[in-house]
Write a structure and sequence with these properties.
alpha/beta
């Protein structure tokens, strides 16, 4: 465990020791911000637990069990993930019941079975209560790892039956190193690492999915709005452009706007998220009352993005609210 996993070295060392001593809990919550590697660490734990010849809490990588894990076909390794729906992704009771059916029988080739529930906070109440019955009556044959970016979103009764391992955000220097190892030019990697907010996953999206350019578009919008250089016609043009994006891209764009506004609001009190933009941020002057209006517009837009609202209309409405708030 630990190869190509960045950050949280102390937590990883602790988990390795627990696995080596055969003391891994029957149910554990891996909690921490999105994109910091919790799922990958959970998979590494599963590989080590199922390995036929583990070494100091790490999988050997060469036994038949490790080969099956690498191929994604180990019969005693199960993953439950949220299913897409017309509203929002969720883990449904049918998925947990199917899981219970599988965990009711003995493992096929290992002494134990490992189950990862990724996005565990997205279990609906019926699914969470159904899982609770399994957690309350552990057989010892199945170990559960609940991966979540929002531990508070889990039922308290589920949380109380699990051991929680909290993971920290990844230092910018380690994110930059990870990006450079993937072929990203050094100065670009350093800039992206500063705005990734401790998330390697976010950094990779910034590099691979145009997020770097989305952030530039976000600050450009704010600068032009403050300078009264955005007309109603411009807003409709931008709405047409956003209509070509995915909902995830627009959500990311709004997040960048929110963080830039946060930097403006806390300019004298906290280190900015966008440290590389300090000079540009210093020129943006927005009254506190107006900033609150802008934050509200972003929060409402993010909420509506989770519904079936038309993307173009939603974008145009958001841009108009920003323009009106800034006079």
């Amino acid at each position: 465990m630990g190869g190509q996993i960045f950050g949280n070295a102390a937590r990883i060392s602790q988990l390795r020791k627990i696995i080596a001593e055969d003391k891994f809990p029957h149910a554990v919550i891996f909690s921490g911000a999105a994109g910091i590697g919790k799922r990958k660490i959970a998979e590494s734990c599963a590989a080590a637990i199922l390995c036929e010849n583990p070494n100091s809490g790490e999988a050997c990588g060469v036994c038949e069990s490790c080969k099956l894990m690498a191929a994604g076909s180990h019969p005693d390794f199960l993953v439950v993930e949220p299913e897409e729906s017309k509203t929002a992704p969720s883990i449904k009771i049918a998925q947990i019941r199917a899981l219970q059916t599988e965990t009711a029988v003995k493992p096929m080739r290992s002494e134990r079975r490992v189950v990862i529930i990724d996005g565990a906070e997205l279990m609906n109440n019926a699914a969470a209560n159904c899982l609770l019955k399994t957690l309350e009556e552990p057989t010892g044959q199945s170990l559960f790892i609940l991966v979540t970016a929002n531990r508070a979103g889990l039922l308290m009764t589920v949380r109380s039956r699990c051991v929680t391992v909290n993971f920290e955000k990844i230092p910018a220097s380690e994110i930059a190193t990870a990006l450079e190892l993937r072929g990203v030019e050094k100065s670009r990697a350093e800039t992206i690492s500063l705005i990734a907010d401790g998330s390697l996953g976010r950094a990779l999206r910034l590099e691979n999915s145009g997020g770097y350019e989305l952030r530039e578009s976000a600050i450009d919008l704010i600068e032009k709005l403050c300078a009264k250089k955005i007309s109603v016609e411009d807003i409709f043009s931008r709405g047409a452009e956003v209509d070509k994006w995915t909902r995830e891209n627009f959500s990311e764009f709004v997040s960048y706007v929110q963080k830039i506004l946060r930097d403006v609001y806390l300019s004298d009190a906290a280190e900015p998220f966008n440290a590389d933009l300090k000079a540009r941020l210093a020129k943006i002057k927005i009254p506190a009352e107006t900033l609150c209006e802008l934050f509200d517009a972003g929060t409402e837009t993010q909420r509506r993005l989770r519904s079936n609202a038309a993307l173009r209309l939603l974008a145009e409405s958001y841009f108009l609210r920003l323009r009106l708030a800034l006079g």
